[in-house]
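Sync notes, pocket subgroup
Present: LS, DG
LS reminded everyone that the earlier model was apo-only. Rerun requested with flavin-adenine dinucleotide included. Inputs:
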Amino acid sequence: MKVIVVGAGVSGLCTAWALVKKGVEVTLLEQGPIPNPLSASGDQHRIIRRAYGGQTGYQRRIGAAYEAWDALWDDLGAKHLVDTGFLIVSQTGRDEAVDYRQGLVDGGFPVEDLSPTDAAARYPFLDAGTIHSAAFSPEGGVLLCQRVAVGLRDWLRRAGADVRETTKVSAVDTDNGRVTLATGEALVADHVVVTAGAWVLDLIPALAASLTSYRTAVAYLAPPEDLRAAWEAAPAILDVGGTVDGYVLPPVAGTGLKVGAGVHKVPCKADDRRVPEPGEGERIRDLFGPPFARIGDYRVTEVVTCAYTFTRDEHFFAKLSPRATIVSACSGHGYKFGAAVGRCVAQGVVSGDREAMRSWLEARD
Ligand SMILES: Cc1cc2nc3c(=O)[nH]c(=O)nc-3n(C[C@H](O)[C@H](O)[C@H](O)COP(=O)(O)OP(=O)(O)OC[C@H]3O[C@@H](n4cnc5c(N)ncnc54)[C@H](O)[C@@H]3O)c2cc1C
């Protein structure tokens, strides 16, 4: 069987990996380099956590996500996951952080409650006077996305897959398994898997009925010198409390300290506004004080723009055509499922039971 995979973010790379392991002849086409810094998967790191709060379908699948990553680490000969645990900070006792904590308790996950003074003693970058409470769970961490991408790209090539960078697809014929490249060259396979992230709307505009693409940006920060060691030992922070929907990735394994906030995202086409705006990093940074003390002392070192898709209810998306499967593991929480999504899509394509595949991805059971 021959399969073309369009797009080498985490979904495409992992689908190619799982297909190759099933003996499929794979061609993987990526418009940029691998990793592509413009893709949703191309940044330095992403959060993974076992507790999934209200999204019960994904809660039931998180064990499969960890199992799939473990299988991938075995193949790559390296674990690109740092088990930092994760922290939730509530500023008011009524914000979303409280719901996340309750999700941990309800799910029977280990959780350690911290008073403001205990939290600030353990994590000195917190301003105790601005927080209501904090909770730590050891079952989560930081996935090193760029290392995952490089590891998979090289593994795929060693395994005989045809991995083509700077190869843009301009059209997909979903009925006939045919892909046209920007150069005009046509490729045909038994099946095409489209994992094109936010660009899927350029390839198949009708999907705008189900998917909306957004632009956001994250800021990398250099903390004040006296807080550097505290940050290097910090857990991932899933929610900083308040109303900004803010999260923090600690500087682990050579990565940077990164902050991002849900309130910063706006509807946008994948290629639009990809240059950071003047002062954008400082605006993102300032969303984090509170709960961090001395936020103005953090220097913005880099701002990275991102494009990603959302469905209305934040479940993943799959469209099945006669000779193509279009997958969007999206809505801001898909990276952690990357290896499991790849296994699921490969199983659906090879077995032909793509309805089971769609059901797993959409996670409504
Ligand atoms: C700021 C931010 C923070 C996030 N935080 C988390 C988190 O902490 N935890 C988590 O689990 N998830 C998180 N996510 C979500 C996660 O990053 C995405 O769900 C995941 O990376 C999507 O991967 P993908 O492969 O589907 O898409 P992408 O990574 O966007 O990959 C699509 C690829 O297809 C290529 N492509 C597109 N069109 C073409 C074409 N025509 N021809 C050839 N190639 C093409 C693109 O160049 C790109 O490389 C976050 C997302 C963002 C933006």
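DG: The longest strand covers residues 299-310.
LS: Residues 6-12, 29-32, 36, 39-41, 46-47, 168-169, 195-199, 203, 216, 218, 260, 306, 308, 328-330, 332-336 surround flavin-adenine dinucleotide (CB under 6 Å).
Action: DG to write up.
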